[in-house]
Amino acid sequence: MTLVMTDKPTTNTGIKADSGPRKASHILVACLCLIYLALNISVLIHTSRHPDLVTKMESKDSRQYIEIAQEFARGDFRMSYVQTMPHRQPLYPLLLAPAVKFWGDNPIALGSVNLLVGLALLICFYYGVRRLFQSDTVAAIGSLLFIGNPFMVDKIARRLMTEPSHALVLVILILLFLGYVRTGRPLYLLGIAAAAGLDYLSRTNGLFGAAATLGVLFVYDLWRLAKPRENDTRTRFARTRSVFLTYLGAAFVLMIVTIPTWLPRYQYFHNPVHHGYLSNFMWVDSYEEGHTGQIQSEFTWKDYAKSHSVGDFFHRWAEGFYRVYYDIPRHAEHIRVLYFLSLLGIVIAFAKRRWEFCVLAACLFIQLLPIVWTSITTPGPRVAYGTLLPFELFFATVGVSFVLTLLARYARRVAPARFPDSQ
What we know:
72% of the residues lie in helices and 0% in strands. With 423 residues, it is mainly α. The two termini are 22 Å apart.
């Protein structure tokens, strides 16, 4: 069992040849699922039995998602909620709708939706990482980092928010992303566009993610045109035409998948990306100032430019980077094993020229820029860490693979010295 990802794939899929998950892998993932369920079910039951925790679980933002889910449960898919709540997206309420229809506001039933979403995330992540690294050990350690993450436990078992669905879609998107960078197969890019569309249907900042993902990949593909793959005998013009046609197809897929969000906004506001007061947070200095609750934004970049200096502009960026890349993960994780492993993974990816992870790091950096800019107006960890976490998990697996490789080499060197007769 190798722990090192090779630079040249041995199959036409870009993934090392593998006989598929073994029986031991299935047993291991089943054990991980049991650990995940035992932890989160116990937290969910505790939450449901505590009146204050239940009230918090179903209040504020969560109440709005439940109200939208009630519309869907009645068979009303006109998206009329957009008229009063244009900052909400429909995917998470759609997931809640079956539970609302049959069990109403029962916290166990509603929380079970999050449990199932998190379970799907765990399974996708485990098998995806196992295929990337050909290692049950790396996949299991990465999965345990997800299971034990206090932020995700809170959002799965104590809240009714979009973080679980957002993380699930991002995990799928990242797996497709890595596959596309390795292979260049158009089908992967179309899948990325579909996943990015679902992410936008889950959370508004998914729009940044879609733009960053497709934009970074497009630039990467233009750069790669100068260095065609060994088995690609097409002319440069043919390769260029293929790239542009593929991205046109991806843009079409993105547009189709996101119809439930942009069409009602265009119908009611004549603006397909209208999100109410959310844009206020780009141009104010506090949450209270931006959170007007209105269906129209009240501030623009002109308001910010009039009342801020160039120094204010750079100070905001500096504070945002500190918060998003250090302070928020520090408080969200408590024990920062995941954080340091992910940093190690990024360093190793660039040092070892693991290009798929290098391009992924660029994608993360760009899509976090709007979140960095607005971190002083949305100081809580939800938005920033909810997006950062899935990427952290994948970068951490690179770090874990590197550490295990070093340990294996050390063990091979030490073994002959300890047991000379075995030679």
